[in-house]
Amino acid sequence: MNDQLDMLDHAKRTALDLAMRFGPKLMVAIAVMIIGAYVGRWAGRATDRWLSSHGFEPPVRRLTAQVTRLLVLLIFVIVALQNVGVELLPLIAGLSVAGAGIALALQGVFGNLAAGLTIIFTRPFREGDYIGIIGEEGLVANIALFDTILLHADQSQVVIPNRKIVGEILHNYGRIRQLDLVLPVAYDADLARVRDAVDEVLRAQPLVLATPAPLVGISAFDPGALKLAVKPWVAAADYVTAGGAISAELLAALRARGVAMPIPRTDVKLVQSAP
Fold first, then answer.
1. CA torsion sign, 162 to 164 to 167 to 173?
2. Rounded to whole angstroms, what are the CA distances from 193 to 158, 161, 190?
3. 60 — pLDDT class (breaks 50, 70, 90)
4. CATH code reported for the domain at 2-86
5. How far is CA 169 from the centre of its chain?
6. Is pLDDT at 146 greater than 70 in this prediction?
7. Which CATH class is domain 124-174?
8. What is the C-alpha separation between 132 and 174, in angstroms, rounded?
9. Residue whose C-alpha is closest to residue 157's, from 173, 140, 171
10. Alpha helices, DSSP H, located in 106-227
11. Helix (H, G, I), strand (E, B), or coil: what is residue 63?
């Protein structure tokens, strides 16, 4: 019983001694790290604002701001560890050995990281562009270090690992897209009146861009009708909405001008066999 009390008393004295020796240093180290977190956050935001004022792309701004914040925090962590009395050289050596094993285990993650840096700095596409890649199409909503997010017209998202993008054939439509609408017109219709109706609709439609100019012309001669191609330019985000709106407005404009739409007709002849 006395041995147990002696051990407990020894443990208390040891804990008190450690608290007296390292307690103040530990409190200072914690305070330094808290201050470092705030300073790092402020430095990251200041860096982002400066890059934004100089016209840098959002992915570059985010990456640079994150690196700045982490570097500032790392400096404060080193100061805190030195204040506690931690030897940095053995710690760095141990982290190097552990880092080699971690790198082997996380090859896919580092592959995405390297690909993300490639995308950010070579800029094959930017946020806001409409792209097609590996069977997927969508508006680029976000470019991050590890993945890129595409936004579909139905507001669903596709997350593509960056290593799947680099090295693949990529179709970048840019920030604007050209609609390809087909307007059937009867052969006996007044083409000048039809063209005036189309031009009026395109000029009045707010989603249609004035530059580049829309393309309008006959694209095919079908047996039952002329095919008039109507190809206005719209913002990539408005592609689906604009197509439906313009089609409805074209139909209403032609009806208002008395232009009849061709209706497919099939003639059936009955041949009576000889008795």
1. negative
2. 44, 52, 5
3. confident
4. 1.10.287
5. 18
6. yes
7. mainly beta
8. 10
9. 140
10. 107-122, 191-204
11. helix
Q: What is the dihedral of CA 41, 109, 138, 175, to 10 degrees?
A: 50
Residue 234's SS3 state is strand
Under DSSP, is residue 24 helix (H, G, I), strand (E, B) or coil? helix
According to DSSP, the β-strands at 181-185 and 147-151 are unpaired
Decide if 170 contacts 133 (C-beta within 8 A): yes
Rounded Cα distance between 224 and 181, Å, is 18
pLDDT at residue 180, rounded to an integer? 93
Span 104-117, pLDDT tens digits: 555 567 778 888 88
Structure tokens, 247: 């089609």
Alpha-helical regions (H) of the chain: 2-53, 58-84, 88-105, 107-122, 191-204, 239-256
pLDDT in tens, 2-35: 555 556 665 666 655 555 566 676 777 778 888 8
Q: Looking at the DSSP assignment, which residues form a beta bridge with residue 139?
A: 130, 151
Pairwise CA distance, residues 208 & 213, whole Å: 9
CATH 3.40.350.10 at 176-256, yes or no: no
Domain spans, the chain:
2-86, 124-174, 176-256
Q: Which two tokens stand for residue 199?
A: 């031009």
Let me know if the fold of 124-174 is the same as that of 176-256.
Answer: no
Task: Give 10's Cβ-side CA count (13 Å radius).
Answer: 6
159: closest CA among 175, 138, 130, 188?
Answer: 138
